[in-house]
Amino acid sequence: GDTTAAQHNNSRISNTSTKMAEPNTVVLETAMGAISIELYWKHAPKTCKNFSELAKRGYYNGTIFHRIIKDFMIQGGDPTGTGRGGESIYGRKFEDEVTRELKHTGAGILSMANAGPNTNGSQFFITLAPTPHLDGKHTIFGRVSSGMDVVKRMGLVQTGPSDKPVDEVKILRASVY
Known about the structure:
Structural class: alpha+beta
Strand order of the largest sheet: 3-9-1-2-8-6-7-5-4
Number of strands: 9
Shape: globular
Oligomer: single chain
Number of helices: 4
Order of helices and strands: HHEEHEEEEEEHE
Strand content: 15-25%
Distance between the termini: 32 Å
Helix content: 10-25%
């Protein structure tokens, strides 16, 4: 059948024809420094589209990393800053794109936060260490390509109740390249 424009981004087509529509890098500019992220379009096209589109729209600008756990992960992407908010570009929640090929093998892996299967919105986390217990439960859709020192420093900030940083760790601006 014919592929409509709406389906175009979900179909698996050679990378050359979609290069322009798929930004490879998202940069999170934070008060602590910049974090560059390489997106895994091949493995998680819907998740990458959501993240890059939200970044492009300014959705993440001014949001905080509301949950930081030393030697585990930093979590952000919720405009309410509570860990209970955030919406995807698809409406409310969307399905996981879990693959056996990608695992939470070390620090710097970008993955979707969720509240159980197929509950992805706008929240994401970046690992600070291997987290094999999350394999198969969270969609991995990228990795930190530069700024890992920034991520590591974030992982050391003082936190209070609910693992929330005492002093806000803020995304000033997210840019798409």
